[in-house]
Amino acid sequence: LNGIERISAEPLAQTVSVGDRVAVKVPIGEYGNLNYLRPLLVRKVVDIVKEMGGKPFVTDTTTLYPNRRFTASEYLKTAALHGYTEKTIGAPIRIADGEKGYDGAIIPLTKIVDGCSIKEVEVARAFFEVDKLVVLSHVKGHEFAGFGGAIKNLAMGCVTKIGKAAQHAANRPIFNDEKCNSCNQCVEGCRFGAMTMLGDKPAIDQDECKSCLNCFFNCPQKAYSLPKNAKEVLQINLAHAASAVISRFNGKVVYLNFLQDVVDYCDCVERGGDRLVNDVGILSSIDPVAIDKASLDLIDKAPSFKKLEGPDRFGHIHGTSSYIQLNTAEKLGIGKLGYELVTI
Ligand code: SF4
Ligand code: SF4
């Protein structure tokens, strides 16, 4: 905890002024996942922000996929089970995109590169009602993005369901009727009402589908697949969405990356997978690209429990290059891949 104080005091002091309303963005993790950030770590950051005269609240957004964070009220129950309450955290906990996950406002993209498939981003309402943003990210692998760090936390974590669906549109599942045994599970499980049974096979209404991937992940026959370039396009979209969120704060955002409980999969899934390396430490920066690149490099250099060498161990695990999101983010001008690592 003293380490958090030492490494975050300077960037926070450069950013937070007396009286600022400060959103502390934290992914609180899906029910059943045990790798999410411990509340005590978040409490420490909240306390520092308060000592600096800021008025913090802790926040995240509802998920696109239907589980126990799909609505704000479901999310707050899961947060409490994970030890996140106003009492433990020392600040209110607010779900940034409202009860159903549709409360936000559009930020158009001013620069588009690398074949990005979105033109605008619907950012969650709460981020328009604060002066400063502090982004706390648990660094771990991600099935589609290679890894999740600061950029993914900004891009997917600070937007509404519409903002998430737009970024995921390139991942829309493709149905293979030869594998389907007509069990009806996918139709019943689609929380967006985008599926019906036509005869004995499911059909997706493309206008209603939000690319939440519930049908893809849960079909017992594995009858859904994803487009070939889905992972690449998603990462490119992530970088663009991150740029939109940052633009709301004129680039003045503080990032802390926690390289602990470094596992294969995101905190969004119940089973996070195997541990890749021992805990590495905590990084802080005001550059989301540099902090993510330094995180990947440190994880690549750490002794691993798996027979996987760097560069990009996460990319090897998930069959993509984790650098796509970083390269696109640098082209968009939101940060630099180069960094100087100062060990404290
Ligand atoms: S869940 Fe899979 S097997 Fe069942 S109806 Fe849907 S596609 Fe077919
Ligand atoms: S059709 Fe599948 S991907 Fe689309 S919203 Fe329904 S469950 Fe989600």
Briefly summarize what is shown:
The protein starts with a helix and ends in a 13-residue tail after the last helix.
Strand order of the largest sheet: 3-2-1-6-13-14
Rg over CA atoms, rounded to whole Å, is 19 Å
The SSE order reads HEHEHHEEEEEEHHEHEEHEHEEHHH
Proportion of β residues? 15-25%
SS field, number of helical segments? 12
Low-pLDDT stretches are: none
Counted beta strands: 14
Task: Give the topology.
Blueprint: H1 2-15, E1 21-25, H2 39-51, E2 55-60, H3 72-81, H4 86-89, E3 93-95, E4 104-108, E5 120-124, E6 132-138, E7 140-142, E8 146-148, H5 150-157, H6 161-168, E9 174-175, H7 185-189, E10 195-198, E11 201-204, H8 214-218, E12 224-225, H9 230-247, E13 253-259, E14 281-285, H10 288-301, H11 313-318, H12 323-331
Parallel strand pairs: 1-2, 1-6, 2-3, 6-13
Antiparallel strand pairs: 4-5, 7-8, 9-12, 10-11, 13-14
Helix pairs in contact: 1-2, 5-9, 9-12
Keywords summarizing the entry:
binds iron/sulfur cluster, single chain, alpha/beta, 344 residues, two-stranded antiparallel ribbon, 18% strand, 14 strands
